[in-house]
Amino acid sequence: MNTTLNVSERRKAQFIETGLTAAMDMTTVNRLMECASFINAAPPDLLFLEGDPARYFYSVVTGYVRLFRQNNEGREGDIRICGPGDTFGDDLVFSGDTCRYSAQAAENATLVCYDLAKVRQIAANDDGSMARVLAMSLATQLQQAIDCVADDRLNTALQRVAHYLLSQCPGDTAPASFRLACRKSLLAGKLGLAPEALSRAFGALKTLGVNVHGRTIEITDIEALKRL
């Protein structure tokens, strides 16, 4: 299942480039590295389940991880799709001893795994640097969650997909072509859609100049997407 990796110089560089450590000074980075290890995970590996004792939190280096909850009937709902640079579970540094959702590798992934107990000890005893960086990470996640809820409430499925495609365009002029960063099933979860709803949206967007070939997207009329 998960494989612990040695921290090579390349791994150290990747560690420093994660979203969590980007705002840290090197002293704090080095302290955090003492609490960290690299792991590999592949679908359908579960990192943890809702209700498990909380022992770690994670940053994604490569690949994708889906965070989800499951109801009593076994139906699963994605909460968040985490990609390179994203951190999850860091809310547990400040409170809570139980995982509040489940996490599963959605693609082959390399993760930084942080020991919660050790991070809590550093955060409690340093000059506040660790706590400030963690608070910034959580504030960013909260802002993203608010944007996601607003997008879900205010925009149709078609608009959500169109806005996402516009955000991924390499430029502001047509024609434009790019490759989706993740599988369509993951993109559906990221946008809060069922896979079939995403397929219907892509079908409808074809009339507005969006052509989908596997994970390659071609857009011939950017202005039409902006008008949605």
Automatic annotation (TrEMBL):
Any single Gene Ontology cellular-component annotation: cytosol
Stored InterPro entries: cNMP-bd_dom, cNMP-bd_dom_sf, Env_Response_Regulators, HTH_CRP, RmlC-like_jellyroll, WH-like_DNA-bd_sf, WH_DNA-bd_sf
**PROSITE patterns (UniProt xref):** CNMP_BINDING_3 (PS50042), HTH_CRP_2 (PS51063)
Domain (HTH crp-type) ranges: 155-223
Alphabetical UniProt keywords: DNA-binding, Transcription, Transcription regulation
Could you confirm whether the keyword DNA-binding appears in this record?
Answer: yes
Which molecular-function annotations from GO does this UniProt entry contain?
A: DNA binding; DNA-binding transcription factor activity
Ranges annotated as spanning the membrane = none
Q: Which SUPFAM superfamilies match?
A: cAMP-binding domain-like (SSF51206), Winged helix' DNA-binding domain (SSF46785)
Which segments constitute the Cyclic nucleotide-binding domain? 20-122
Pfam families with a match to the protein in the record: cNMP_binding, HTH_Crp_2
PANTHER family reported in the protein's UniProt record: CRP FAMILY TRANSCRIPTIONAL REGULATORY PROTEIN, HTH-TYPE TRANSCRIPTIONAL REGULATOR ARCR
Q: What is this protein called?
A: cAMP regulatory protein
| Protein source organism | Martelella mediterranea DSM 17316
